[in-house]
Write a structure and sequence with these properties.
Layout (H helix, E strand, L loop, with lengths): L1 H6 L8 E4 L2 E4 H19 L5 H9 L5
Antiparallel strand pairs: 1-2
Length: 63
Amino acid sequence: MNVIGAVFNLNNPAHVVHWHFFQMSVSNIIVIVAMLAVFALAILLPFPGAARRQAAREGRAER
């Protein structure tokens, strides 16, 4: 467990973004942006095998 502690130094104060009444740590902003990116990719990318299922519905077999 001491090996993991050597990778990240947690004895420093967090970096915080201030914007009027909005205050959030940089690490939380990075996590939120990563979640939004994964969500966008999940919406935009087609499901695996979607073309094969569509071809099967239309009656032609692609192999």
